């Protein structure tokens, strides 16, 4: 006997998988706009050395990096040949290596304010990492049901 389970709607599953990258890009865009708004307000109300001159470059870099790695992770999880843990670990390592390369390119000419660059860089890095992990964990929770 074949046990009966809940009916499976393959069409809705396929549609959900197709819209997942679009939803991810929309979420990362909204998150980036909110961080940009907070950064702009911070620069307006708290002038001083707290915001490095490459603040906006860092923000755009991480928005693009998180968007690309998030879509890549969603597409790899869709293939079902990769385990979700290896996908998350792989995208995190890719993000780390590209971030190290970005820091090297920015600091190569010699920057006079390295401390605030590092502080701004790691704050933005951690915020986008938290956003990415939250998004991937909620996506994995949907796949486990």
What structural class do you assign from the helix and strand content?
mainly alpha
Question: Which sequence of SSEs, written as H and E, runs from N to C?
Answer: HHHH
What is the straight-line distance between the termini?
Answer: 24 Å
Strand content: under 5%
Give the tally of β-strands.
0
* Poorly predicted spans: 8-16
Helix-residue proportion: over 70%
Global outline:
globular
Please characterize this protein's 3D structure:
With 145 residues, the protein is mainly α. The protein has a domain at 60-140. The chain has four helices and no strands. It has helices spanning 10-45, 55-79, 84-107, 114-144. Helix 1 packs antiparallel against helix 2 (55-79) and helix 3 (84-107) packs antiparallel against helix 4 (114-144). The longest helix is centred in the first third of the chain and has 36 residues, at 10-45. The radius of gyration is 19 Å and the shape is globular. Mean pLDDT is 79; it is low at 8-16.
